[in-house]
Amino acid sequence: MTILRSHRSRLALPVLVVALAVAVPAMASGGANWGFGTKGQSSATVTWAPDNGKNVTLVVFTLPVKAKSAKTRRGTRCTIPSAHPRQVRCAISPATAYGYVDVVAKSRIPCKAPLQFSAKPVGASHLVRQQNILSGNGCS
């Protein structure tokens, strides 16, 4: 009987570790990226997450090329200031710790170019600079 119990406890730890890994959202570790289907397209999907994993109400991306339009997956249109045509500003409502933004640029986005990323945490009065968002899939 004690042998059976020791095998159960040995198996319980790996099962618990796997269960926790599945339960924790993949984006909580700051795993942001952007990508598109084939190299050199002018449209891309940005998967974003703040470095600290906290909820944000505004995200700002600076592209290496001029932006044409952008929209969150919830359908909210993002703004592109005329003074900064490479910048995309997206209001996030309700506040969340990760999300997706579909961006269309005026020219092809270079595959290896990182996107600059800033986010405004809930309750903050200013944007906080985050790590650059590197290219993910679609840049092979």
Description of the molecule:
This protein has 140 residues and is α+β, with helices and mostly antiparallel strands. Helix content is 16%, strand content 35%. The protein has 1 helix and 9 strands; from the N terminus they run αβββββββββ. The protein has one helix at 2-23; strands at residues 33-35, 43-48, 56-62, 67-72, 87-96, 99-105, 116-121, 128-129, 134-135. The chain has a 5-stranded mixed sheet with strand order 4-6-2-1-9, with no helix packed on it. Strands 5-3-7-8 form a 4-stranded antiparallel sheet, with no helix packed on it. 21% of the residues are buried. Residues 11-30 have low confidence and may be disordered.
The assembly state of the depicted protein chains is single chain
The secondary structure category is alpha+beta
Overall pLDDT metric: 79
**Strand and helix order:** HEEEEEEEEE
Overall form: globular
Residues in helix, %: 10-25%
N-to-C span:
55 Å
Number of distinct helices = 1
Number of strands: 9
Low-confidence stretches: 11-30
Biggest beta-sheet profile: 5 strands, mixed
Rg of Cα set: 19 Å
Strand content: 35-45%
Please state how the strands of the largest beta sheet are arranged side by side.
4-6-2-1-9
Give a concise summary.
With 140 residues, the chain is of the alpha+beta class. The chain is 16% helix and 35% strand.
For the structure shown, list the relevant keywords:
alpha+beta; about 140 residues; globular; 4-stranded antiparallel β-sheet
What secondary-structure arrangement, pairings included, does this model have?
Layout (H helix, E strand, L loop, with lengths): L1 H22 L9 E3 L7 E6 L7 E7 L4 E6 L14 E10 L2 E7 L10 E6 L6 E2 L4 E2 L5
Parallel strand pairs: 1-9
Antiparallel strand pairs: 1-2, 2-6, 3-5, 3-7, 4-6, 7-8
